[in-house]
Amino acid sequence: MARADEPLKRPDRVIILDANDPMVEIEGRIVWQEEHDRVVEETRLAAYRDGYDAGWRDAAARPVTVEVKRRLSAVGWFWTIVLAVGLLIILIMAAPLLFM
To answer: pTM surpassing 0.85?
Structure first.
């Protein structure tokens, strides 16, 4: 029995007959399922590796920027409103003194 990494010994010449008309021989290149699976897997791994490398190159070319946005919580909004109302009251009380 062959190991998984060893290629199987396949015949050099294979004759394939048409199922509907057994007297007709189908000509063309035969691709074994195992060979097809191996080629597809190698191509898939190569494409994944190329895409992964391209992603790292693109990421390395762009500088990393960190943006911090401060968002007020409910308590923060409360104290902002209290401060605005307090400043408005002080401005209303000081208006007569300023415009005399």
So the answer is: no
